[in-house]
Amino acid sequence: MRIALGIEYDGSDFFGWQRQPEGRTVQACVEKALSVVADHPVEVVCAGRTDTGVHATGQVVHFDSEAARAMDGWRRGTNAHLPEDVRVQWAHPVDASFHARFGATERHYRYIIHNHRVNSPLLRNRVCPIYAQLDVVSMQTAASYLRGEHDFTSFRAVACQAHSPVRTISHLEVSASGDFIYLDVMANAFLHHMVRCIAGVLIAVGRGQQSPGWVAEVLEAKDRRLSGMNGPPGGLYLVAVRYPRQFCLPASS
Question: CA dist 123 to 59, 201, 207, Å?
């Protein structure tokens, strides 16, 4: 049987999602817990490998097992063996054609900025603190240049291993509520550090360091050196992954 899981985690104390020879990772914790419930070694495939310090409310994985367990048994049993900063939100049976990574049609990331003159200790590692007042309207204008299909060479890590830098952003909105600014980005796929780089560029515009039109120049240049610093990882969340309706997966919260 192939089973899909919806997973939520606080990435603050993890060296990212992907299993590594050393360092605490989300994948290793999930596989260890599932292996106890299944009573055999389990390997999972995720929708998107998040980096060190990045969080998720809607990560999706799949795994295969011959163990006979109820779906709620997989959820409850796995959670009983997970650390407190990781939880399985749902378990759902899928057929063998489902693939958490290659079957995803869209991924949704949210980047959260706390725009206040004093950094809140309660939000430490969960938002990007910016003390200077940001111009949200200018950030919204700048974001418009990034929507659609583009070569995002200027917005990916130097070590990115993707074969092509071309991606299609179907949705990119900047909104504000009180002291919080939200960047919501949806695309078919993302490059390494792409969302954090977009956040860094939009923050530079919001601070008045660059004009909104500068974003189009950076995009056209295809030069990572022009886009400046990434936003810190604590503000980034993988909030949803979408698949064809035939799989009937539960909606992300």
Answer: 21, 22, 21
Tokens of residue 248, six digits: 């009937």
Give the burial class of 125: count Cβ atoms within 10 A of its Cβ; 0-12 exposed, 13-18 middle, 19 or more buried.
middle
Beta strand ranges found along 65-134 (DSSP E): 86-94, 106-115, 128-130
27 phi/psi in degrees, rounded to 5: -55, -45
Does the reported pTM lie above 0.85? yes
Per-residue pLDDT tens over the stretch 182-235 = 999 999 999 999 999 999 999 999 999 999 999 999 999 999 999 989 999 999
Please report which helix (H) or strand (E) contains residue 35, including its range.
helix 26-38
Asked whether the beta carbons of 115 and 133 are under 8 A apart, the reply is yes
Looking at the annotation, which residues are catalytic? 51
Give the pLDDT confidence of 10-34 residue by residue, as tens digits: 999 999 999 999 899 999 999 999 9
Q: Dihedral, CA atoms, 203, 206, 212, 217, nearest 10 degrees?
A: -30
The phi and psi torsions of 108 (rounded to 5 degrees) equal: -120, 120
